[in-house]
# Entry
Amino acid sequence: MLARKSIIPEEFGLPGLVSRMPRKPVFRDRVNKARFIAKNGSCNLAHKNIREQGRFLQDVFTTLVDLKWRFTLVIFTTTFVSSWLLFAMSWWLVAFAHGDLDPKRLGAVHCVTHVKSFASAFLFSIEVQVTIGFGGRMITEQCPAAITVLILQNIVGLIINAVMLGCIFMKTAQSNRRAETLIFSRHAVIAVRNNRLCFMIRIGDLRKSMIIGATVRLQVVRKTTTPEGEVIPIHQIDVQTESALASNSLFLLAPLIICHVIDKNSPLYELSAMELQCSDLEVIVILEGVVETTGITTQARTSYVSEEIQWGHRFVPIVTEEEGVYCVDYSKFGNTVRVATPRCSARELDEKPSILIQTLQKSELSHQNSLRKRNSMRRNNSMRKGGGGGGGGSSGSLRRNNSAMLSPKVQFFTPVEGGQSVNAVT
# Structure
């Protein structure tokens, strides 16, 4: 039996209408992604299956400097003790070949005086290489072989001292030690500055010795897929800052706010506040400069994932002038305050400049309402305390104060193409 056809056409049925209805974008939950750069600047990268391990031995000095301190100290101790034992064996063989170990030869001249066993040969080896010279043991001119061993031990000892002490010095004077006093704000912020949506961070230097020629570079790291289907797990995109556009280095005397204007060339141009929370991007900040005291180039790094970017916040001021001296309050270094900021993307803000005007107007109205409520509460409290006649005079003065506080008008300017501007007065 054939199915009966409906009188209503299929395109006008409920399934057809639902399929043609515009759907709101659904934002998926962000998958926890391993960050590329940790907050302390270390790289979260593991090297596996390296077949040519011999390449590290071709640059022994750099390998020793890159090792951890416990391995460096073990190698340092092992190298010196091994050289002492090796040349102790050489001195013992010289004494044995010359017959100095024979107790019957009491009046004969030895190659090395008072070397009668391996223990005494080991002590003499340490005295020669470290140049202690207690005076009990010394070499004589009877054995050319002993003179040759003395020359070799001095040369080898100088080489070992130069390499190992140089390695220790380089590890203690590494540039990343200076980077420990270069600090970054815990969070990054996105807010409106000069009528443009901006990405901002704060950097500072805890030492009085300055960083010469300091520069800041920003990079956005994300996983992307090309139109050909190639997956790039770590795609690095350079982000321009105001200092980079001016091609001048930073004068990092006091904490500075690094600003990136989110324009058409920015990778954050099409991201709104909601889309930013669902994205898996990571903003890497690299601060480079020359240490004033040592002349060594140092580099400090950190990164910000989407959860660490606060939309609609701004850093609080921390530099004040007290008794003719500028003071920095580092307890407020990472503090932010909420400000009126559109939740849309920078692209939508460029297409519809009225969004910024409406946001600022709402913020100003809410601020005025809060002032009215605060003043009314103060007026009521003063009337309760003052009572009768005194209350009338105080209330009149409060009314005059309220009118004076609410009278100023605020004017907003929004840039428009062609060099003109749209004004809104409240």
